[in-house]
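hey so i finally got around to running the thing on that chain from the lab meeting. sorry it took forever, my laptop kept dying and i had to restart like 3 times. anyway pasting the input first so we r on the same page abt which one it is
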Amino acid sequence: MRAALWFLALFGIAAAIALFAGNNQGTVTLFWPPYRVDVSLNLVLLLLALLFFTLHTASRALSALFAIPGQARRWRLQHQERAMHMAMLDSLSHLVGGRFIRARKAAELALAREAALSQGGDAPAHCARLRVLSHLLAAESAQALQDHAARQTHFQAALEQADRRDAQDTRDAVQMRGARWALEDRDAAAALRWIDTLPQGAGRRTIALRLRLEAARLGRRTPLALETARLLAKHRAFSQEASQGILRALSLELIASAHDTAQLRTAWAQLDAKERDMPEVAIKAAQRLLSLSGEVEASREWLLPTWERMVKQRDGLTDEQRLELVRVLENGFALAGGAPETAWLTRIETAQLANPRDAALQYLAGISCMRLQLWGKAQQLLTQSLSMLQDPGLQRNAWRALAELAERRDDSDAAIQAWRNAAKR
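ok and heres what got predicted. didnt touch it at all, straight out
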C-alpha cells in the first residue's frame, strides 16, 4: 500500500512538471555588453538544480573528508572502551568460574585501559564506578587466593573511588564486601564496624542484616544477634521453620550465658513472648535458674505455659521435652524442701487423672504425693509408673523414692531391693 502511494505521488509530480515545462514560454535574457544571451526558463531552472546538486555534493564530500580524523579518533575510543568492558566481563566470568588469577588480571587490565583513556582526556562518563567495580573484582579474587595485601590495596582504592560524587551509590557495596571479608577472616569486631558505617536504609537491607547476624554470633554478642534475627524473621528472610530454629538457638545461648540470677532474669526479660513460650527455652531457663539457686516459684511460673501446652495438646511437646519438664519440676520440688504449691498440686493431679496411662505424669504425681507425706498413694503411683517408664534416669529416681518409702516403713528387705534396682539403672 505504501509503495502504491509513492508511485501515485511520483506520477503526480511528473505530470505537474510536464505540464509546467511543456507550456512554459518564458525566457531569461543575459546582457553582457556588447553581447546579449537569450536562454529558456526551463534550461535556467535545470542549470540551477544541477548547480545546487553539485554544490551540495561537494559540501558533503568536504565535510566527510574533514571528519575523517574525528571518526578515526572515535573509532579508537570505541575500540578501547569495548576492550575495557570486555576485560570487566572476563574478570566477572573468571571469578564466578573459580579462575581467580585470571579474574584479577582481567580486572587490572580493565583498570589499565581506563587509566589510559583518562590520561588521554577521554575518560568515560562512568569511569569512577567502573574503577570501583574493577577494584572490587580484583580484591575479591585476591581474597579467594588469600592474598590479603593485594586485597587490602584494591579495597582501599575502591573506597577512595567510592567517595567521588559520581560513584557514591557504590559505597554501600564496598562496605558490605569489607564486612564479608572481615567475617571470612573471623574478625567479628571489624565486620560490625563496617556494618555500622552503612546508612540507615542500607543497614536494614536483608543482606546487611544477614551480615550483622553472622558477625554478632561470631563475636558472641547474643542480644544483638537475637534482635537482628527478629528483624530477619519479620522481613521473611528465612522460612518459618528456619526462623524459629535460629531464634530458639539464640534464646538458649542467651540463657546459657547468664552467670547469676540477676543476669538470667535480665536475659529472660529480653526475650519476646513467642520465644518464652518455646518449650526448650522455658525448660532451659528454669533449669538454669534452679542451678543458680534461684527462686523455685519463678521457675514454675516460667514453666507454666509449657505445662499448659503439654496438658492441652497431645502433640504439644516431644517425649524428650516432656521428660525434661518432669525433671525440672521434680528438681524444683526437691529444692523447695517441702510440699509443692496447692495450684501445682491441682494441676498435676488433674493432668494425671486425665491421662492415667502417662508414665511421666504418674511419676510426677507420685513424687508430689511423697512430698505431701502421702506415703501409700506415692508408693502406688511410683510402682505403677515403673512398668511404663522408658527413661533410665526416671526409673532410677523412682526406685530411689521407693527405697526411701520402704525405709520409712522399716521394710529393710524392700529398701535393699529397691536400692539394688536403682543401682542397676
